[in-house]
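Example for tutorial group B:
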């Protein structure tokens, strides 16, 4: 399998054959290929590096590490089925490159536009013992994609750059007000371009470059997120929000196509799979491991955002800013239940949500959606109904089509 790509970056035009192993999916990021274990004959290096004619540091083909990723993962790159700028996975073409049909919308949202149905959340009340509890789903947005209102790598006029920003809550508790160090984040801060056998090639201990005066405190121990097996040759993984129940999830692009669902299927909230099951449901498990995924991915986010770890919402912490914290590591309430990892188009139009300062009081851009998936603080209502007036069986919000998964 070979991937032919047309690459347009920084005004230059490259046409070359990308390095994709013939025996497995994983693109140029397969650890056993890049490590040399599979033979000292890797072709993948040429997908990202030039020996003499490099355009960026570390001998990269593009002007920066992030730009080199976007040659394949951008709006125009064909070297990967996944367009992270717009949060779309396309089907795999027979020549191994990106085809034009949309397979679905990706889990992490998008850096420039995203298609999260942040204004179309649906909630269903059910009886759990004697309590009325809530189930919620956030579908793909009916009216198409929208520009993002927050992203882990903010874009300037549609050009995704590095993020110089505060790693909120990084470091140990502090009794003097301290929100976190200013650091530089790029794609390769969170992901290992050379592959490492981890879920989404996430670095088990991200180490962003410090660009401010305060030190970045790395995690004390690695935060691995277990990966599923690579897809077989001629297939690729499912990076979309379409999942099926039963622990294994839907893991391959071919299996998603086989479901016969529209590309707009799936659930961005993904607290439960399927979203409306009151029993027999499983947790979000894109790696097929529903018992451990939620805790692992939260631990991973906590490597940078240390003080978002909660010992329970009623525990007083010895910290001046992060004094009480919503429980977030427990099953089904992990960081990526409420947040996406790349970027969100959620609309913060209410006064409180649109003008909320960052931790410690610095002003945030007006309308910044904090990577949340639901407009304003609909996120809270997706799980809570604080008035006690909604009865079991009552549904709020438009019935999503298709209803499941
Ligand atoms: C998907 C793109 C990609 C591929 C494929 C790739 N690299 Fe890299 N490489 C990078 C990026 C980006 C950096 C910059 C360092 C960073 O930010 O992690 C880098 C850095 C490096 C470095 C210096 C830093 C380090 O991690 O040691 C070496 C050496 C290197 N690459 C060698 C290779 C070799 C050899 C291959 C093929 C076996 C290869 N790379 C394949 C993207 C890639
Ligand atoms: C030469 C093209 C190419 C470049 C450059 C490239 N990728 Fe990929 N990437 C792929 C392909 C192909 C896949 C497999 C999925 C698919 O079929 O598109 C992939 C998959 C991934 C995945 C999912 C991995 C997994 O284990 O499922 C991540 C994350 C990723 N790339 C990040 C990056 C980052 C970060 C960079 C820049 C350092 C980068 N990629 C550069 C082609 C590329
Ligand atoms: C702050 C950390 C972070 C940064 C920066 C980041 N990613 Fe990711 N990325 C993640 C996480 C976490 C996931 C898994 C999301 C999930 O499963 O919901 C992911 C998922 C992906 C996927 C799979 C598709 C998806 O939406 O789930 C690809 C491909 C990818 N990233 C590539 C990139 C590229 C290319 C860049 C830079 C333009 C980048 N990432 C920047 C953390 C990051
Ligand atoms: C129950 C939903 C929920 C969960 C789970 C959650 N968050 Fe948040 N997060 C929010 C909301 C809502 C905001 C917006 C600010 C606010 O209301 O405090 C936010 C804001 C943030 C911010 C931006 C800075 C700030 O505080 O405004 C960061 C960073 C963050 N969350 C990280 C995390 C991490 C890391 C985890 C997992 C350990 C996590 N969140 C889990 C709902 C959640
Ligand atoms: C490599 C360190 C790093 C990791 C890992 C990381 N973040 Fe962040 N995060 C940052 C930095 C730096 C910022 C501020 C700059 C920015 O917004 O990109 C930030 C900002 C945020 C924000 C606020 C965005 C806004 O609107 O201003 C949220 C929410 C957040 N992170 C959640 C998460 C979640 C959830 C995860 C795990 C999927 C995660 N982060 C993993 C470094 C990290
Ligand atoms: C994913 C579901 C979920 C979301 C989203 C969510 N919560 Fe919670 N919340 C819970 C659960 C479950 C508990 C109780 C269990 C625990 O943490 O001990 C809880 C506990 C609380 C508590 C403590 C009192 C109580 O009812 O137990 C408050 C207050 C609270 N949440 C407010 C919020 C607010 C405000 C938001 C939006 C920023 C929010 N929650 C979003 C699930 C959620």
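The residue assignment follows.
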């Amino acid at each position: 399998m070979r991937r032919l790509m047309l690459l347009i970056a920084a005004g230059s035009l490259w046409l070359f054959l990308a390095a994709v192993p013939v025996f497995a999916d994983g693109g140029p990021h397969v650890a056993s290929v890049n490590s040399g274990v599979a033979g000292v004959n890797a072709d993948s290096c040429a997908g990202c590096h030039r020996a003499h004619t490099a355009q960026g540091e570390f001998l990269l083909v593009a002007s920066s590490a992030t730009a080199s990723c976007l040659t394949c993962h951008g709006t125009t790159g064909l070297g990967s089925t996944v367009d992270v700028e717009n949060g779309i996975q396309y089907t795999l073409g027979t020549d191994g490159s990106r085809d034009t049909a949309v397979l679905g919308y990706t889990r992490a949202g998008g850096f420039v536009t995203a298609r999260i149905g942040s204004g179309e959340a649906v909630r269903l009340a059910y009886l759990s013992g004697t309590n009325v509890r809530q189930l919620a789903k956030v579908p793909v947005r009916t009216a198409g994609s929208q520009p993002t209102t927050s992203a882990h790598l903010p874009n300037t006029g549609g050009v995704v750059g590095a993020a110089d920003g505060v790693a909120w809550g990084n470091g140990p508790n502090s009794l003097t007000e301290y929100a976190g160090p200013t650091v530089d984040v790029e794609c390769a801060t969170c992901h290992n371009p050379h592959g490492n056998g981890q879920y989404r090639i996430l670095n088990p201990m991200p180490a962003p470059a410090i660009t401010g005066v305060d030190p970045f405190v790395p995690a004390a121990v690695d935060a691995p997120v277990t990966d599923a097996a690579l897809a077989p040759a001629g297939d690729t993984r499912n990076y979309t929000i379409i999942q099926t129940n039963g622990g294994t999830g839907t893991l391959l692009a071919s299996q998603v196509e086989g479901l016969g669902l529209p590309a707009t299927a799936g659930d961005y909230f993904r607290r439960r799979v399927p979203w409306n099951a009151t029993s027999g449901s499983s947790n979000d498990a894109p790696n097929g491991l529903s018992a451990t995924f939620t805790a692992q991915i939260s631990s991973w986010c906590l490597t940078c955002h240390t003080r978002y770890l909660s010992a329970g919402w009623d525990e007083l912490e010895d910290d001046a800013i992060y004094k009480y914290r919503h429980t977030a590591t427990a099953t089904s309430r992990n960081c990526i239940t409420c947040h996406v990892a790349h970027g969100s188009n959620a609309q913060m139009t209410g006064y409180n949500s649109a003008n909320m300062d960052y931790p410690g009081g610095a002003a945030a851009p007006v309308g910044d959606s904090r990577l949340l998936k639901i407009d304003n603080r609909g996120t809270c209502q997706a799980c809570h109904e604080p008035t006690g007036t909604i009865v079991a069986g009552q549904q709020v919000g438009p019935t999503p089509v298709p209803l499941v998964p």
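Residues 118 and 374 are 4 Å apart (CA to CA). Compare this with the pattern of hydrophobic and polar residues in the output above.
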